[in-house]
Amino acid sequence: MTAPLTSPIASQIPSPPGAGLAVQPLPFPSRLESILLYGTFSLLMFGPLAFGAVEWWSLFIMEAGPALLLLLWCVRQFLSKELQLANHPLFPPMLVFAALIGVQIAAGRSAYRYSTVSQGLLYCAYGIFCFLINQNLRRTRQVRTLAIILSVYGFVVAAFALIQSISSNGKLYWLRIPQQGGWIYGPYVNHNHYAGLMEMLVPIPLVFCLTRFARGPRKTMAAVSAALMASTIFLSGSRGGMVAFSVQMAILASLLTVKHTHRRTMIGLALFLMTVVGLLAWVGGAELTHRLATVDTETRTELSGGTRMSINRDGLNMFAHRPMLGWGLAVFPDVFPEFRTFSTNFFINHAHNDYLQLLTEMGALGFVTMLWFVVTVYRQSVAKIRNWTERPNGAVAVATLLGVSGILVHSFVDSNLQIPANAALFYVLCTLGAMEAHFGNPRRTSRHNSSDLSS
Q1: Domains identified in the chain, total number
Q2: 3-state secondary structure string, the chain?
Q3: Which tens digit of pLDDT belongs to each residue from 110-148?
């Protein structure tokens, strides 16, 4: 930073008291920062409540909301009279992916230009979400507040889903009949998409209660919230969700084992799993037992020629016809009927495999860009997990890593990343996991630890 120019006369003028101190941020821009951060997360929490943000009115809010927040961020930059732009390791692959979408549109490579343009705008909204989080999430206090908010939010949604499943009348919120039917659970028409939401939210209170930052009632409340949320993954009947959650717990257990975590933390995880099993035994009943018993049977059926395997086979044939740039973002339901080799009365709107759908729509170039994105997330997150039970950066990395891993496993058999509410939360978790380690440890009350500000 260059030093300010001064004249000899000006240098002899005595400075007013406090002139050498750092200039405090303007109150209004500071308030704008809080509005931007919590406004972004409010939109993220709105999406699942609006049936996953799959209808035109909720899509409009999910696209217009981030655009208005970005405009507000520009106002804040103007008021602060300096451009503060934080870089992020995920920005390069995101920009490359955006460029590929632009090429599809500009070069006429999309089979249905309108769908590609519409979905491209939605991806711009995802990018704005990630950009705003990276620019405005700077303080450990904000991380703690958001962890509490998301834990309470997840608990409320899970409790609502559980009550609705017990007293269901076949309508969303007991009021609205789904237009095309479905297996309702919580605010979602598709129970698999509800499970995907919970896979991303469960690690937040679970990791929080396993760290040293949660004490007394907060630790208990976080554990109860995580247990209820995890239980509804199984109670929703989503086989993909059950497998994904099991993988998440295996990853968490391995992290605790490899890092030689304190015995009390291991006991805490064991008690959490016992609580989940207890809730399932109490509420689940015969239906849950049947779903668990048929996981292996259904998997074998699909592998031996079920509908999803047929979709995968035809999808690969679809990819072979346009291997480099694909058929265009969001055009899978429009193009797939030309390659379908099986008869069905159902409309195939998604591939039920997010990787296959990405491959057919964006080609090999888009798929490689996605791998670049995911590898960056894991590399940046893993680099911060050392002593994660003691450090906020590590705790954030582990929570986001578990959430991302769960949805990536589930994406092999479902289409969670085609649902705007789930996709937006997924990309935000990736942003949090891969962002620089700049959260300091909270100041402890003990005088021996008052200088513990390491990141």
Answers
A1: 1
A2: CCCCCCCHHHHHCCCCCCCCCCCCCCHHHHHHHHHHHHHHHHHHHHHHHCCCCCCHHHHHHHHHHHHHHHHHHHHHHHHHCCCCCCCCCCHHHHHHHHHHHHHHHHCCCCCCHHHHHHHHHHHHHHHHHHHHHHHHCCCHHHHHHHHHHHHHHHHHHHHHHHHHHHCCCCCECCCECCCCCCCCECCECCHHHHHHHHHHHCHHHHHHHHCCCCCCHHHHHHHHHHHHHHHHHHHCCCHHHHHHHHHHHHHHHHHHHHCCCCHHHHHHHHHHHHHHHHHHHHHCHHHHHHHHHCHHHHHHHHHCCCHHHHHHHHHHHHHHHCCCCCCCCCCHHHHHHHCCCCCCCCCCCCCCCHHHHHHHHHHHHHHHHHHHHHHHHHHHHHCCCCCCCCCHHHHHHHHHHHHHHHHHHHCCCCCHHHCHHHHHHHHHHHHHHHCCCCCCCCCCCCHHHCCCCCC
A3: 999 999 999 999 999 999 999 999 999 989 899 999 999
Residues paired with residue 188 on neighbouring β-strands, in sequence order: 185
Condensed to tens digits (0 to 9), the pLDDT of residues 375-425 reads 999 999 999 998 898 899 999 999 999 999 999 999 999 999 999 999 999
Q: Which domain holds residue 49?
A: 27-85
> Who's near 216: CB < 8 A, 6+ residues apart?
none
Number of Cβ within 10 Å of residue 263's Cβ equals: 8
Q: Which of 337, 330, 390, 395 is nearest to 362 (CA)?
A: 330
Structure tokens at 348: 């195939």
**How does the average pLDDT of the chain come out, rounded?**
85
Contact present, 393 and 94 (Cβ < 8 Å): no
Asked whether residue 108 is domain-assigned, the answer is no
Query: Residue 455 above 90 pLDDT?
Result: no
The answer to whether position 255 is within a domain reads no
| Domain assignment of residue 228, yes or no | no
Cα angle, residue 379 at apex, residues 146 and 255 outer, rounded to 5°: 70
pTM for the complete prediction?
0.87
64 lies in some domain: yes
Backbone angles phi, psi at 172, to 5 degrees: -70, 130
